[in-house]
Amino acid sequence: MKKINCYAVFEGGGIKGVAFAGALQKAEEAGLNFIGYAGASAGAIIAFLAALGYSGYDIYKIINKVDFKSLLNEPTPDELKNLNSILKKAKEIGWFNEKWWGCKKILHAIKLKNHLEKSHNGLLPNAIKRLITNNGLYNKDNLIDILANFAREKITITQLPKLYSPNGANLSFKDFYEITYIDLNII
């Protein structure tokens, strides 16, 4: 049977990760040879594990064993409430109006700042701090640690000493390709 070279692309969708693992397993059984993977959100986790060399069945076992959601430090209900309040006010003052620029945008930024100072006692809400420091509402450190551990099971220290840094998060896409010869794209 001739092997077909192809790419696998997985979208986000949380629980769909289990279905992606099953689809990957069936594709492997059909003789497809994946030369690259791409994914977004939950699909990025599947793509990463597959690119490391985990089979569809291995990924299925990992997904059922690890509670990925528990690895994310969720924002508190108060933080979400504050963020919703800020977004609502930003909409009210027209912050998202793309036609505004320059001085008009600055004036509306001042209105938003004044709202924050009045409604949040002059402190920037923790939700906004999370957005700035984490590039999102969730802190991803625990998730990065567990994914680095899965990588360490497949990549040896002689292949990539960078992977053995304190948090193992130094792996560039170029480094990854030079070790695995598999294209990996995370969206």
From TrEMBL:
Coiled coil: none
Residue ranges of domain PNPLA in the record: 8-187
Annotated keywords: Lipid metabolism, Membrane, Transmembrane, Transmembrane helix
Lineage, opening ranks: Bacteria, Pseudomonadati, Pseudomonadota, Gammaproteobacteria, Enterobacterales
Organism domain of life: Bacteria
GO biological process, one term: lipid metabolic process
Species whose genome carries this gene: Klebsiella pneumoniae
Motif placement: GXSXG: 39-43
The keyword Transmembrane helix belongs to this UniProt entry's keyword annotation: yes
Protein's UniProt name: PNPLA domain-containing protein
TM region(s), chain numbering: 34-55
Xref: PANTHER family: ANNEXIN (PTHR46394), PNPLA DOMAIN-CONTAINING PROTEIN (PTHR46394:SF1)
Sequence motif GXGXXG, residues: 12-17
InterPro entries: Acyl_Trfase/lysoPLipase, Lipid_Hydrolase, PNPLA_dom
